Amino acid sequence: MTPVGCITEHERILQEIESTDTACVGPTLRSVYDDQPNAHKRFMEKLEVRIRNHDREIEKMCNFHHQGFVDAITELLKVRADAEKLMGQVTDTNRRLQDAGREVTAQTEEVIRCRIQQRNMTTTVERLQLCIPVLEMYSKLKEQLESKRYYAALKTMEQLEKVYIPRVSRYRFCQIMAENLPKLREDIKDISMSDLKDFLESIRKHSDKIGETAMKQVRDVVVGVDQPEEEGVLTAQDLVDFSPVYRCLHIYTVLGDRETFENYYRKQRKKQARLVLQPQSNMQETVEGYRRYFNQIVGFFLVEDHVLHSTQGLLTRAFTDELWNMALSKITAVLRTHSSYCSDPDLVLQLKNLIVIFADTLQGYGYPVNRLFDLLFEIRDQYNETLLKKWALVFREIFELDNYSPIPVETEEEYKSVISRFPFHDAEIEKQDFPKKLPMSQSVPQIYVQVKEFIYASLKFSESLHRSWTEIDDMLRKSTNLLLTRTLSGCLQNLIKKPHIGLTELVQIIINTTHLEQACKYLEDFITNITNVSPETVHTTRLYGLSTFKDARHAAEGEIYTKLNQKIDEFIQLADYDWGMPESDGQASGYLMDLINFLRSTFQVFTHLPGKVAQTACMSACKHLSTSLMQMLLDSELKQISMGAVQQFNLDVIQCELFASSEPVPGFQGDTLQLAFIDLRQLLDLFMVWDWSTYLADYGQPTSKYLRVNPSTALALLEKMKDTSKKNNIFSQFRKNDRDKQKLIETVVKQLRSLVNGMSQHS
């Protein structure tokens, strides 16, 4: 930069320094040093020149104003005296003013103090006007607590907290009051909970009465009892004060703790439900035990139903349904167990009636009870079992007291008395004069009457089960079938097997069962008249009485055959043949004649039996007699038989054949009965005639004279008649007359043995 340019720049810097604030002069000075070397020296020189110029100007200015300054000081000295005088005057005026204002000040201070007092009083009144409502509300709260109006007290607390206390919250008593309110709330919760616990305890005690009243009302409706108008219909609310529940619910709701209350109430009621559902150990012994049990359960669930409908959400339908389902499971298990121990049908029937009323009562309050009616079907089976056991004793007693003789009737009244109890119609007997006898014994009308009584008893259980008459008809027929096929059939079978029941009694039993079988159609009509269900209905169950009495009759017939055979065996055991006798006595054995006389008198008793029964019995007896005689002849213990013994045996068989041909029982065709002795007859003829040549020649031919004689049988008897010892040798006459006959016997024995061996090989 040229010296001229440098000087101009220094001028600019100096002007900037003179016109700029000293705090901002730094950047300006820095530019001096940033220029060319020695520029700052030239700047300093320039600066000194500028300073000297300013000093000269200042000196000129001071010289110019110096005289004026001296003049001013001189003037000021002149007014000092006046100032001092004025100061004295001002001081005096101030003194006098102070003296005058002191009284005003005192009065002013009094006015100020009064004003302050007035203001304080106004403020106090205003504050009291704010506090008095709070205190009044708190006093009201205390009164409500003392009078146990807890719900209203909670509302008062809420107003205190939200409206009144915030207005005066800066006062200490309000702070204490506010701090006390939560404690009062807890006290109210505790008190209301205590009241609820007392209510729960009370309701547990009153459940029995509530249930009893409700079930009585339903029972009166069922049986058609009119209640007095002034009595009205009592409800759970009439018997129990529910206010503790409502009060506690409202309190907990207001306190925002409703869920806690709901959970507590439900939990406690579940516990009480379990207690109510627990039966007494001896409940099944009396109907009162069951009644108390049902009363408590009904009372419990009626209370739950009332609470459900009178509160908003304390209980829900889901909760009560869950509780009821739990109760149903327990109730059905309890009743199933306890009823199984009950052996008295009257008690079971009373229990059924209680269950029906119990179910109808709860169904009226909306509780589903189908499972209870399903249980009743199980109990119905139990009831039928107890009835069957009871009637088994009745039948047994009837059979034990029966004389097993036809019923004698002396007069028309006696006859009508019998046929009024039993449907008997016989034109022939009706034509007979009195006195006369009816074919059945006295047990028949008694059994018939008792079957009808059983049907009535079974019907009692089916009543009030809300079932159709078709179903009831089916129940009656099934239970009657059980009575006939199991109970009565069992009693008949046991009766028939008893040792003291003889042939006469068995014959009468067969006659009795025949008439009972014929009466079954009247039992069908009896049930139809009760139910009005046609027996032609597709699903109608038929009575099985026909098979029952047929089976009993067949058993009696079989027992007759067995006892006849046993009696025959007893006579056979009396036989005392002299198997070595040289010749017969010329007449039949005494034991056999006694046996035939017994059979003849016995078959006379059979005249009232159906023809086939008597014929079968007679044929069975003859066959058994024939078989027994054959076994006696072929007994392995019997070693020798003389021809005289054979002749005597033949005489006895002839008597048997004569008996068979005498038609002891009518109805046999030709010599059918005699054929029972054909095996014996052909065997004895073979030995009596000694017709071995014919037997051996015709053996195996359908036209053989001795077709029924088995080679083994002939061989066994011939072996007993062989000459096995010299003593009592029945063939000695043959040796004397013709020794060749002994060889003939040996030949016959060999041939018979050959036939027997051939038969065994062929088989």
TrEMBL record:
Q: Does the keyword Transferase apply?
A: no
- Tell me the first and last residues of the signal peptide: none
Q: Where is the Exocyst complex subunit EXOC6/Sec15 C-terminal domain?
A: 372-720
Q: Which GO terms describe its biological process?
A: Golgi to plasma membrane transport; intracellular protein transport; vesicle tethering involved in exocytosis
InterPro entries assigned:
EXOC6/Sec15, EXOC6/Sec15_C, EXOC6/Sec15_C_dom1, EXOC6_Sec15_N, EXOC6PINT-1/Sec15/Tip20_C_dom2
> Where is it found, in Gene Ontology cellular component terms?
exocyst; plasma membrane
Coiled coil ranges (UniProt) are none
What's the family?
Answer: Belongs to the SEC15 family.
The task this protein performs is described as: Component of the exocyst complex involved in the docking of exocytic vesicles with fusion sites on the plasma membrane.
This chain's protein is named: Exocyst complex component
> Upper lineage ranks?
Eukaryota, Metazoa, Chordata, Craniata, Vertebrata
